Amino acid sequence: MSEQTASTIVNKVWNYAHVLRDDGVGYGDYVEQITYLIFLKMADERAEEGLNDVGVPEAYQWSNLVKADGDDLEIQYRHTLEHLGKMGGMLGTIFRKSQNKIQDPAKLERLIKMIDKESWATLPVDVKGDIYEGLLERNAQDVKGGAGQYFTPRALIEAMVEVMQPKPTDVVADPATGTGGFLLAAHDYMAKQVTSKAEAKHLKNDALRGNDIVDSVVRLCAMNLYLHGIGGTECPIVNQDALAKEVTDKVDMVLANPPFGKRSSITVMSEKSGKAEMEKLTYEREDFWATTSNKQLNFVQHIANMLKVNGKAAVVVPDNVMFEGGAGETIRKTLLERTNVHTLLRLPTGIFYANGVKANVIFFDAKPASKTAWTKQLWVYDFRTNVHKTLKQNRLTKNDFAEFIELYKAGDLSQRQATWSSESLDGRWRAYDYAELIARDKTNLDIFWLKDKTLEDSENLPAPEVLAAEIVEQLEAALTEFKEVENLLG
Known about the structure:
The chain is α/β, with parallel strands linked by helices and 490 residues long. The protein has helices spanning 3-21, 27-48, 62-66, 70-84, 89-95, 105-116, 125-142, 154-164, 181-191, 197-205, 215-227, 295-306, 320-323, 327-338, 402-408, 434-439, 464-489; strands spanning 172-174, 208-212, 237-239, 251-256, 263-270, 281-285, 292-294, 307-318, 339-346, 359-366, 377-382, 429-433. The chain folds into 2 domains: 3-137, N6 adenine-specific DNA methyltransferase, N-terminal domain (Ferritin, Up-down Bundle); 144-471, 3-Layer(aba) Sandwich (Rossmann fold). The strands form 2 sheets. It has a 9-stranded mixed beta sheet with strand order 3-2-1-4-8-10-9-11-12, with helices on both faces. The termini are far apart.
């Protein structure tokens, strides 16, 4: 199937969302209903080929929905969701707590017939995944406060995976998996290196692990992986709070973009924490280094503890993780000491659906216990200063990371060469020794050195259309926030 045909299917399925929107079915709910129905249609097609690999009971299979109409259809669909949600494995993951949000039987019937026209099981694996990811991305674009918070730009994900180079024998995890972007990109990279049936089996069933605290997102991720041919009766994604307990089964690699939003109602207590705010719900983590309610700082501690010795991590974090004092300083110092924090990528603004986010990617390798710090040099690539990106007019692309990927030297970090010097002041790549990092106030890793050209004179301002796009996006984000406040007050 051509890319154009895949896009046509996405547009056809997505356009129907506007019809349901008039009935009060939100875009997020619509994608969920699509998830249920496409899964049942695929399971039915596979069963016809003798591959009932997910075990949908006969009474709740796709054929029963196709032949029903009117109130009987609504009842059949509701009972199907209720029953499958109580099952285990992949079925239970996708249908857990599922409800029918399409109350008009006529519209439900139309949606079922539209999906029934496509032969989903016969589509190539990558095309099926691309169609579904197209729906997820469209949802992220249209719902600023919805799935967008779980959606990391594909160009960034692919660049991170390319420098991390996961092997087909690795176990790769994402403790805040969202819709599965990191796991799928890792899978695609690993699949190109498979050389045996054992590696292929491992890649399908055991190579990927993830969890997310949000029910609906776990469902979307499970479906996304299934459409890409990953997993079977058992689902590699778990619905739970990753921070709730210590890691016992460690992994080779972590790729993650933990949820932004600075504070949590939960304080995670370290072994050395002493007294905590008792009115808050608390978790006790003896493997943590500091007590804080900052979710990102807790995820940094958690991810460091997820890794096997010599395991590798690449984690997207907001700026506050790099400079916040108190627990933040303790965590940064401990991370520099216990792991090799070798790379920091400063990201441009305007690339996330949550507007105005300033974020970075930190890359570190786990190491055994040592009396001296493992970090010797931190290499910083400043892809933020004098870089202007928007979600529409000037979107982030994989090519934007070409220089970073080349300078990273994934095959041998010792071959790195700085592009900044006293003679080349515009270079975006330079190293800082451990002694320099520790000497910085509060071990602040929010490091930059390039001059912001927009502050020098008006001639260097971004193009008018770029500025206009940034202003529009900021206004739209502000309006969305005002509406959320209005809804809460109403």
